Structures are given as C-alpha cells and as structure tokens.
Amino acid sequence: MGLFTSKVEEIRHSVKQYVKQTAQYLEDEQISYNTEFIASDNITKNVIEYAGKVDANLISIMVRQEKVASNLWLGSYAQQMINHSPIPVLTIHEK
C-alpha cells in the first residue's frame, strides 16, 4: 500500500516508484501482497485500518519517517504503529 501525505505530484511519483519496486521484489519471491494507494492525514490509523480490511497478518514499514510537527507530541510514525497495531509490525531500516 502506498500512502500519499502530500499533494505534490513529484512526491506521489516517488511513492509509486517505491511501491512498484517493492511489489516486483515480492512477486519475484512469490510472496502475496496487495497494492493500493490512499491519501492520508493519519498514517498509523490508515495503515492499521487497511491491514484489518485485507486481513493482513503482518505490517511492514520503513523506520525512516516524515518529520512533521505532530511527531513532536506523538512520537515517530513507526513508534505509533508498534504501540497501537493489533497486528505484528516488521520495521525495516532504509539503506
């Protein structure tokens, strides 16, 4: 799943490319996956809702996250995901 947190087309294009690259890897490894793009103002909530909708058994996220003012009070998106998800979360550090 790709989440759009910006309306800037260049950023959306980058998200689409990352999802495409990930989908190709999963396909090559014969791993089931779903691809969908969602505009989001609450990443943690939207990911958890989507995971429940598709009956996912694992949420995989990158540790590097956007820096926005709300993170000063709420913590990183990754930390929020780990703390609030009823589904196991796999965190992957970017290269």
Number of helices: 4
Helix-strand string:
EHEHEHHE
Distance between the termini: 20 Å
Global mean pLDDT: 86
Q: Numbering strands along the chain, what is their spatial order in the largest sheet?
A: 1-2
Our Rg estimate from Cα atoms comes to 13 Å
Range of helix content:
40-55%
Number of strands: 4
- Low-confidence spans: none
Shape: globular
Sheet with the most strands?
A: 2 strands, parallel
**Structural class of the helix and strand makeup?**
alpha/beta
Give the DSSP E fraction (strand runs of 2 or more residues).
5-15%
Describe the structure.
This protein is α/β, with parallel strands linked by helices. It is built from four helices and four strands. Helix 1 (9-28) links the parallel strand 1 and strand 2 (37-39). Helix 2 packs across helix 4. The chain is globular. The two termini are 20 Å apart. 7% of the residues are buried. The model has no long low-confidence stretch (mean pLDDT 86).
What are the SSEs and their pairings?
Blueprint lengths: L1 E3 L4 H20 L8 E3 L3 H11 L5 E4 L8 H4 L2 H8 L4 E4 L3
Parallel strand pairs: 1-2, 3-4
Helix pairs in contact: 2-4
